[in-house]
Amino acid sequence: MSNELNEIINTASRLLTNKEYTELDSLIDEGVLQRFQQAVLYYFKCIARHEMNSDGQDILGYVHQGLLLNEKYKNLLEIHYIYTMRLDLPECALLSSSRLCESYPDNYTYQFWYAEALQKNGAQADAARAFSKAHCLISILHTQNGDLQNAIIEIDKAIQFDSNHHFAAFNKAKILYYQDEIESAIELLSSLQDCADIQVDVTELQCKIAEYYNDADAMLNFSHRILSTVPDHPYGLRAGIKAARLRRAIIPLFDSIDKVLSYHEDDIWSHLIRFSFAKHLADDDGFFLASHDSDVLYRSIDIFMQSGMYDAAVNRILAFPVTDTRFVVLIEKSAWQLWRYNQFALMKDVMQYALQQTQSSVAFYGFLAESVSCTESMGKGLEIIQQGEQLDPYDTTLGYFKAVILSALWLDKESLPIPLEYTDTLRRVLMEYLSQHPHDSRALYALAGICYSITDYSDAKRYIEQAIDDGISNVYVYYWLARILHKCGDIQGALEAFEQKFEMRSSMSQRKFKHYLTKAEIFADLGDTESLQRTIDFIEQQWPAQLEVDYRQQLENWRHLLQPESN
Amino acid sequence: METQILSQQQLFALSLTAPILVSWRTPLYTALTTGQSAEVGDMLQSWWDVTSEQGLREMITWLEKEGGHTVYFIRWIRKFETMTFMQRRDLIAHLKETDRDEYVRAKLVEHYRLDLGPYTILAFDIARITLLVRSGYDMGWIPEDEAWEILLRQADKIVQQRMWMSHFDYLYSYIVGRTFGMRKDVAGTLESIENAHRLITNYSSPWLSHAPWPTFDKTKSAEERSVH
Q1: Alpha-carbon gap, residue A381 to A370, rounded angstroms
Q2: What gap in Å lies between CA A206 and CA A219, rounded to an integer?
Q3: How many Å apart are CA B201 and CA B194, to the nearest integer?
Q4: Distance between CA B114 and CA A205 in Å, rounded?
C-alpha cells in the first residue's frame, strides 16, 4: 500500500474512532486525491453514516458514488450487498454479490450472499447451485485443514442442494480417498465417469487409487485413458513410471522416464526417481530383475551417466557383449558422454578396452587420443591421431579431436604455433562440428584459439565469448579472453577479465606468471605507470628464475618506460 | 562447544538442512554449527535480509507459524479445486501471456498437487527453518538449548504427522517448494535437481551415511494393501 493511501486510511480511521464525522466528510474535498483514494474515503463515509444510523438510501447513495470511482472495491461492494438486502432490493444485491464472487471465486461467504440474492430474486435453481458451491468451498477448506469429518458434512450439504453438482461429488470422492474409505470413493467415481467436464480429474483420482493399491495394471489402464485425452498430462505420464517400478521392469521404466521428460524436461519427480533407480542399479541390490541383460546394460549406461555415476557406467560398458551389434555405437556414445562430463581417465580406460576388442571404428582413435591428451600429454595424443589417420585420414571424429588437441596445444603453449598448413583445415572441421553442436564450448574455445593464431582477433573474440556463455569450465579461458580483448583494443574489458574472472590457483604458477606478464603489457599500453610498477615488482618477487631465463629483456623495456616517471 | 555424541533424532533433525547445505563447500551434519561460521552472516543478509537476532527470530516464527510459501501454494490449490481441468489449463495459458511469476506458480501447483500429498511444499519451509536456527546458533543469537528445541520440534512434527515417508519424498517436496518460492525456470529447476540428487545417491550424503529416515509405525503401508 502506498504511503499516501496509508496516511489517508489512518486519518479517516482516527476521525471515525473519534466520531469526528464532519471532518471525515471534508477529507474527500481536500487536495487532489486519486480515484481509489476517494473511493476509500467514501467507504469510511458509509461506515460513519452506518454508525450514525443514517437512512439506508443515504448510505447507498455514498456507496454508489464510491463504486463509480472504483467498481470492484470490495469494502463498498460488501456494504452495497448488506444495505440492498436490508432495503429489500435483491436485484441490486445480486449485482454486488455476483461481482464479489467474480473477484473472489474461492470465498464461500460471498458465494452464500450470491445464493441468498438469487433466492430472493426467485431464481431457485440457480440459488441451489450457488448454495451447493458455497458448501463445497467450505468443504475444501476443511479438507485442507485436515478436518475430513466436517469436510464430508459440508460436501453432503452441497450435494443435497444440487445433486448434479459434479464437483461436489468429485470432491467427496477425494475426501473418501483421503479417509481411506477407498471402496466408497471408487463407487462414487464410477458414477462420475461420464461427466465430461471432470472426466480427466476423475480418471486421475482413479489412477491414484490404483497406485494406493499397488495395482500396476489398473494404473496403466487409467494412465492410457488420461493420456488419450491429454497426452502431456503429468500425473498420467508419471503413472507409467510408477507402474513399471511396481513391476520392477527396467526397460519400460527407462522408456516411461524418457517419455515424461520428453514432455516435461524439468519434471522433478521423474529426475529424482531416475537418480534413485540408478542407485538401485549401481548397488545391484536385487530391486530390478534381470539387470545384466544386454538391453538393460545398454540402457542403464545412460542413466548412470546422467546421474553422475561414471564408474558404474564404465563397469556396464566393460560388461557389454562385444558381439552385440550395438557395441561400436555404445562405445562411441559413451565416449562422447564421458568427454562432455570431463571424465578423461575413465574415457581412456574405455577406449583402450574398446580398441583391444575391435578396430572397426577409426573414431575410437580420436577418443583415445583426446583422453590421452587430457590425462598424459598432448604430444602422445597427436601420435594416436596419426595412427588413426593411417587407417582413415578423413574420419570426422578423428579430424575433430585433431583440431581440438592442436588448438589446445597452441592455447597452452604459444611457443608451439599451429602449423599454418593446418589452420584452414582445422577451422573447417571445427565449423562443421559446430554446425551440428553449436553449444559445444570446447569446440568454440578451440576455434577461438585457431582464429587468434592467425591474428583474426574479432572472430577469436566472438568464439571465446560464446564458449564462456556456453559454460566452459577451463579457468585459463579468461586469460585468453583478456589477451584477445587486449588485441581488439578493449583494454578495460581485458583488465576486467583478469580482475573478475581469472581465478588464481597455486597449481597454475606458470599460467599465473603469463597472466601477470600480459597484465604488465596492458598497463604499459595504457601508460598506467603506477600499476605497471606494482605488477613488475610482483613478477620479480614471485618468479625471479623465470625472468632470468626468458623475460629479462621485456622487463628492461618496461623499466625503461617507467624511467621518465621515476625521474 | 564441547564435542558430544548426538542422538539419532538430533542427527535426523540436522540432516533436514541437507537440501540447502548440499551445494555448500563443506557442509556439516554432525554438529549444531553449519560449519560455515565465517559466511553465515553474509548469507543471512543476502538471502534473507536478516541482520539482527530479532530479524532472525521473526523469520523463524513466520516460517513456523504461517508457513512461508506453503500458504501461497495451498491458496492456488484451493483455487484449482473449483475448476475443471480445461479451465485450469486455460487459466495457466492466460497467465503465461500476462503474468510470468504467477504462471510459474500456477503451473507448478497443477503439475504436482496430486503427487505431493497434503503437506505440499512444507519441506522447503522446514529446511529453511533448520538452516536459520543453525545459522542463528553460529551467530551467537540462539543459545544451544533453544536451537535444539526448535530443530527437534521440526523432526518431531515430521514423525508425528507422518508428513513424508522417505528422504525422497522430503527432497521432492523441498525442490518443488524451492522452484515455487523462487519461481525458477526450467534451467533453474534442473540446477536444483542436479545439486540435490547426491543426497539420495551418494554414500557420503548424511541421509545415506548416518541419518536414515525414521521408521514410522505405519498403520497401512502400501505393501500391506492388497490389490482390490
Answers
A1: 6
A2: 8
A3: 11
A4: 9
Contact A307 B197 (CB under 8 A): yes
Q: What angle (nearest 5°) sits at the alpha carbon of residue A529, between those of residues A524 and A530?
A: 135
pLDDT at B75: 83
Q: Which of B192, B197, B205, B207 to mutate: most A Cβ within 10 Å?
A: B197
- A265 and B86 within 8 Å at the Cβ level: the answer is no
Q: Does the structure show a pLDDT above 90 at A15? A: no
Q: Which of A178, A208, A279 is closest, CB to CB, to B201?
A: A279
Other Cβ atoms closer than 10 A to A541: 8
Report CA-CA distances (Å) from B221 to A202, A205, B53, B215, B225: 24, 19, 43, 12, 7
Residue A237: exposed, middle, or buried by beta-carbon count in 10 A (0-12, 13-18, 19+)? buried
* Residue A170: all three cell numbers together: 468429485
Q: How many CB pairs under 8 A join A and B?
A: 99
Lookup: cell for A39: 473511493
Name the maximum alpha-carbon separation found in chain A: 104
Please give the pLDDT value at position A501.
Answer: 52
- How far, in whole angstroms, is CA A372 from its chain's centroid? 35
Per-residue b or e along A169-205, where b marks 16 or more CB atoms closer than 10 Å to that residue's CB:
bbbbbbbbbeeebeeebbebbeebeebeebbbbbbbb
Cβ-defined contact of A268 to B112 (cutoff 8 Å): yes
Name which of A234, A265, A276 is nearest B168 (Cβ-Cβ).
Answer: A276
Cross-chain Cβ contact A266/B189 below 8 Å: yes
Burial of A372 (0-12, 13-18, 19+ CB in 10 A): buried
The pTM (predicted TM-score) of the whole model is 0.73
Is A204's pLDDT higher than 80? yes
Nearest to B7 by CA among B28, B32, B27, B26: B32
Asked if the Cβ–Cβ distance from B186 to A200 is below 8 Å, we say no
Tens of pLDDT, residue by residue over B69-92, are 777 888 888 888 878 888 999 999
Better-scored residue on pLDDT, B7 or A440: B7
pLDDT value at position A285? 67
Per residue in A377-431, pLDDT (tens digit) is 888 998 999 999 999 988 888 988 888 887 777 776 655 556 666 777 778 888 8
d(CA A173, CA A167): 10
Report ipTM (2 d.p.).
0.92
Which residues of A are less than 8 Å from B86 in CB distance?
197
The C-alpha cell 575410437 sits at A364
Residue range A109-136, pLDDT digits in tens = 999 999 999 999 999 999 999 999 999 9
The residue count of chain A comes to 567
Query: Please, what is the average pLDDT of chain A?
Result: 84
Asked which of A7-16, A30-39, A446-455, B9-18 is least confident by mean pLDDT, the reply is A30-39
Q: Name the residue with higher pLDDT: A542 or A81.
A: A81
Buried-state track A400-431, b at ≥16 Cβ within 10 A, e below 16: bbbbbbbbbbbbeeeeeebeeebbeebbebbe
How crowded is the C-beta side of A65, counted as CA atoms within 13 Å?
16
Amino acid at B72: Y
Half-sphere exposure of B147 (CA within 13 A, CB side): 22
